[in-house]
Amino acid sequence: FLVGDTRRIIREAAKKSCFICCKMGATITCCQTGCDRAFHLPCAPDGQCVTQYFGAYRSFCWEHRPKQALRPRSSQDNTCSICLDTVEDNISYKTMACPACQDARFHRHCIQRLALHAGIDFRCPRCLNQEPFMMEMLTMGIRLSKRPPSWQSDPEIRPSDPRHGRCDATTCLCPGGREHTEEHGPWQLRLCSSCAAEGIHRLCSSLGNSTCSWECSTC
């Protein structure tokens, strides 16, 4: 924007009231034609508003936001595939689902947190579908990161990051025990490439030297 355009936008926003908190200075407006609802970005979750962080960066109020259209599922497992806590029976702003397997359910805040940690490896936590799943989440307002997964970060560079540190194989073969790890060799610990919540020694899982990733039985 030019300086004049920026000043005009600021003046216009100062006159608009956020329909969620009722305070002035709402800079975001619903892009639906004919809708005059405006809101602050921090207020959006409370008002169940959606901003799409791609393309034209369109924003929608609670009434006009995109909604998922899914087939009835056979499973009645009403638990979040990420935190395992209970989710709502029906799809809503707070409860989302995978468009590929049609069965995975998760809280919006859980899938948003996973998206930021998974980065370019973001995919359904249950069926591992990536392309349709990622586009659906973008459309529904989930913000993605373009960086590598956080669990692949070098622990020497980021020593404060929590990192799983034990072998979860049914039978651990390491003489030093499940918590013994080495940087290279048979006792190198590989974390699950999907959840990073479980790990296994390379020898305990028969992983070859050329194998770069491993997934736990849950994922």
From TrEMBL:
Top-level division of the source organism's lineage: Eukaryota
Cellular component GO terms held in the UniProt record: nucleus
Domain PHD-type: 1-65
Record-linked SMART domains: PHD
KW Transport (keyword) present: no
Domain RING-type: 80-127
Gene3D superfamilies: Zinc/RING finger domain, C3HC4 (zinc finger)
Keywords, alphabetical: Ligase, Metal-binding, Zinc, Zinc-finger
InterPro entries noted in UniProt: EPHD (IPR034732), PHD-type_Zinc_Finger (IPR051188), PHD_PHF7/G2E3-like (IPR059102), Znf_FYVE_PHD (IPR011011), Znf_PHD (IPR001965), Znf_RING (IPR001841), Znf_RING/FYVE/PHD (IPR013083)
Record bears the keyword Metal-binding: yes
Pfam families named in the record: PHD_G2E3, zf-HC5HC2H
GO molecular function: ligase activity; zinc ion binding
Designated name of the protein: G2E3 ligase
Organism this protein belongs to: Nesospiza acunhae
Gene: G2e3_2
